[in-house]
Amino acid sequence: MKNRIEEIRSEKGIRQEEFARQMGVSRQTISSLENGRYNPSILLAYKIAKYFGMTIEEVFIFEED
Prior knowledge:
Layout: E1 2-3, H1 5-11, H2 16-23, H3 27-34, H4 42-52, H5 56-59, E2 60-61
Antiparallel strand pairs: 1-2
Helix pairs in contact: 2-3
């Protein structure tokens, strides 16, 4: 699953460390999310979308095989 986390976070001028703190996860988790190495739980995906004032679908791109 792809996502726009890095793009959105950068547009808003939020550093990975600050974003991680707000989400209650490590900076490494945010880095892994942004690089597509980790898919978040539905709870974390919801938290991320809510933080950005967006829907999950606006942040995460689901691609069917």
